């Protein structure tokens, strides 16, 4: 049994903790929040035996083996760093940090400490996404020429909300755009060049459009938005066909392989819970095996994605430094 501690009690922590119950070898034994009453309420809801009003106290709990970091973006680095220094394995919500420099520091520390670290890019562990990756590698739709993906939806403008606050790591790219960027990296690798266009509100990117270009001439058109009503779909276009992933591409329950002169090939999946349990099971598997990284979301890949996001944000004029 792998014993977990959860840092933060917001919406994503609530959902992911619920899905942890679907993994037989995962047990949440502690939760922390800046508010002790909130921690207590969260613990009661999820049947967690211990709660703390300071995450440092939770890191001192000898029963906690793995820490799930679900704090706002801007505090991912410091919380994950302290957990690694305490010798705890870490699953950190995406984006792993708000800058490439901080991500590099975190990865360097994890490797130095020889402690497991993984970015919580849950999409990578969805069985259908894994199947898409396999089909592309097998050449099922030929050589990939382009990837198209978007993730966006209108969010009420509120300068007090972290999404619109640069100090909290707000903006569309880090919260939503990381999904299409990571999806593209999974299939095509790091781009040769990046061109970004967007709109800033209150110092964060309210919307962003990225064109990633590759040495062989292939490209990706990706977008994220806090103001536009996007489809949240993805298409992978090859020389011999295409793969269509309907909404929600980052949590797919189906996709279709479309090729000329052949019947469409449909794939489907029934997901238990919200779909986060696949990544929880991955962490449990790797930690129990004494491994420090996941081959499906390796740390070098996390850094490559952060490098793309960092460059795009720099072009847009967004700074979290």
UniProtKB/TrEMBL annotation:
Domain (GFO/IDH/MocA-like oxidoreductase): residue spans on this chain: 130-244
Keyword field contains Nucleotide-binding: no
A Pfam family per the record: GFO_IDH_MocA_C3
Domain spans labelled Gfo/Idh/MocA-like oxidoreductase N-terminal: 3-119
Presence of keyword Acyltransferase: no
Keyword annotations: Oxidoreductase
Residue ranges of the TM segments: none
InterPro entries referenced in this protein's UniProt entry, alphabetically: Gfo/Idh/MocA-like_OxRdtase_N, Gfo/Idh/MocA_domain, GFO_IDH_MocA-like_dom, NAD(P)-bd_dom_sf
Similarity section: Belongs to the Gfo/Idh/MocA family.
PANTHER family to which the protein is assigned, alphabetical: OXIDOREDUCTASES (PTHR22604), TRANS-1,2-DIHYDROBENZENE-1,2-DIOL DEHYDROGENASE (PTHR22604:SF105)
Descriptive protein name: Dehydrogenase
Organism: Kibdelosporangium persicum
């Amino acid at each position: 049994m792998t014993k977990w501690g959860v840092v933060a009690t917001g919406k994503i922590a609530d959902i992911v903790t619920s899905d942890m119950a679907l993994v037989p070898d995962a047990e949440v034994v502690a939760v922390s929040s800046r508010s002790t009453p909130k921690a207590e309420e969260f613990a009661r809801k999820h049947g967690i035996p211990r709660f703390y009003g300071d995450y440092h106290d939770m890191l001192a709990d000898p029963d906690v083996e793995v820490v799930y970091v679900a704090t706002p973006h801007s505090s991912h680095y410091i919380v994950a760093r302290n957990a690694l220094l305490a010798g705890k394995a870490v699953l950190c919500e995406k984006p792993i940090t708000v800058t490439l420099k901080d991500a590099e520091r975190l990865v360097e520390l994890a490797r130095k400490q020889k402690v497991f670290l993984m970015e919580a890019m849950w999409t990578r562990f969805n069985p259908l996404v894994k199947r898409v990756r396999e089909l592309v590698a097998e050449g099922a739709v030929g050589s990939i020429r382009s990837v198209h993906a978007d993730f966006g939806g209108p969010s009420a403008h509120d300068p007090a909300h972290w999404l619109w606050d640069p100090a909290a790591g707000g903006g569309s790219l880090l919260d939503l755009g990381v999904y299409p960027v990571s999806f593209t990296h999974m299939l095509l690798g790091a781009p040769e060049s990046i061109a970004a266009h967007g709109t800033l509100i209150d110092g964060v990117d309210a919307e962003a459009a990225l064109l990633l270009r590759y040495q062989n001439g292939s490209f990706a058109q990706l977008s994220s938005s806090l103001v536009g009503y996007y489809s949240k779909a993805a298409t992978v276009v090859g020389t011999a066909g295409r793969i269509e992933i309907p909404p929600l591409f980052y949590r797919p329950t189906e996709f279709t392989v479309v090729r000329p002169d052949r019947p469409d090939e449909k794939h489907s999946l029934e997901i238990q819970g919200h779909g986060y349990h696949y990544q929880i099971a991955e962490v449990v598997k790797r930690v129990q095996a004494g491994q420090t990284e996941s081959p499906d979301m390796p740390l070098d890949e996390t850094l490559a994605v952060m490098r793309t996001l960092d460059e795009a944000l720099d072009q847009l004029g967004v700074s979290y430094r």
